[in-house]
Amino acid sequence: MDLLTQLNSLPMFLIVGVVVLFICVLCVVFLVRSWRAGVAMGMDKAKLRRAITSSATFTLLPSVSILLGVIALSGSLGIPLPWIRLSVIGALHYEGNVADIAARAAGMSGGLGSEPLTAPVFLTIALVMTAGILAGCILCVFCLKAYMKKVRGAAQKQKSGKKGFGDYMFTAMFVGLVSAYIGSYLGEWTSAGNYMPLFVAAVSAAAMGLFEYLARKKGMTWLDNFSMAGSMLVGMAAAVALFAVV
Questions:
Q1: Which UniProt keywords apply (predicted)?
Q2: Where are the domains of the chain?
């Protein structure tokens, strides 16, 4: 039995299933308590139902991109690990990048999926993916109260039209992250002649730009819930089409 078959075995699904079931039960508990608290405050039940319906809708639609992330990672890591990472506290833009970085550090020169997966490499990837995301949970325990004070202060500044340091820092971080990936794609193109990542990134960026234009300029704000999943699907379709042609 190869490693990928073991990663997709019944015991692995049972372990992940228990965790995901616990999260689902916890969500139901919070939903019931929130409903009761709203009723106790005198809120209209019709409005509460509309809030639940709209929240469920706007939760399901963006989750399409998360499902795509699970599918993308499952070919290399099996289904259970990406499933639990992206269904609890994982983030789509984090898990794939960290898995690829860990794979390269563990000896896969071509990145995740470039070579057959071994047990030590899988353990390294799983450890890095899990340990890295725990920082947010730990910081919330010790720093959330002080952080919320900063958030409220930033909200007051935004109302007055002023931008705080956090706004500039987030923009700079995002630009740096995008530049790093575009640089690596350009490096693959110039050194190895592999222009597929750069092509897919360009097509996905164009699709995201189109979604943003329609949402901001044409009043189609509902597209905000599809922009991430839509741009990923367009990028994947472009990669498949280019691969078929070439």
A1: Membrane, Transmembrane, Transmembrane helix
A2: 177-246
